[in-house]
Amino acid sequence: MLSFASGETDIEVEWFGAPDNGLSIAGPAVLLLHGADGLTFVDGYRLAARTIAASGYHVAFVHYLDRTGDRRVNYSRLRQDFPLWVGIVRDALSWLAQQPGVDAERLGIVGISLGAALALETAASDGRVKAIVDYFGPLPEDLAARRPRLPPTLILHGARDAIVPVSQAYSIERLLKEQGTPYEIQIYPDHGHGFTGAAQFDAAVRTEHFLDRFLR
């Protein structure tokens, strides 16, 4: 297990390296940010990390809840803790850019639910993020009002999501469209807050193609 310092806290990172292609060329890398369930669904996040890594990307799965000492999000402190987590993501980008074999000019974030909101908030003020994959995440409250320029974004959402309504996906799309930012959106009509079966496979393929388009 690797780690980096954020404030006075060590943040653990699980590293999933891209396959060695035999070339001494630095490659693209992404942060993987889990949702509010934290590490209670860790095997699913590790599977996602391995899938992305197999596509040729270094993946850093960041345990950002280490900063607040939680295993899953404490909703009573969500607003209070959100800025702390954004700071961790920025520190994680700095750490990722310095890792051997990583091209600091080709960094992205794959965020799931709350992790996607953190990705959007971070990218709004950090130009190092060159691409975002948003798995059923909400648009941070004041982001639409601030109208920041975001990087190319892939939006993946379930039409029946009862936790983060699909209207959030369309709000993100509207913001990107107003900016003229490249984006793709896929709404899965029969899925809620999470994908299974064919939708899960399709989302993984779209993620790979999108990252290839903007980080290769």
Automatic annotation (TrEMBL):
Domain of life according to the entry: Bacteria
Signal peptide: none
Domain Dienelactone hydrolase: 26-198
The protein's name in its UniProt record: Dienelactone hydrolase domain-containing protein
Recorded GO MF terms: hydrolase activity
Pfam families: DLH
InterPro entries per the UniProt record, alphabetical: AB_hydrolase_fold, Dienelactn_hydro, Dienelactone_hydrolase-like
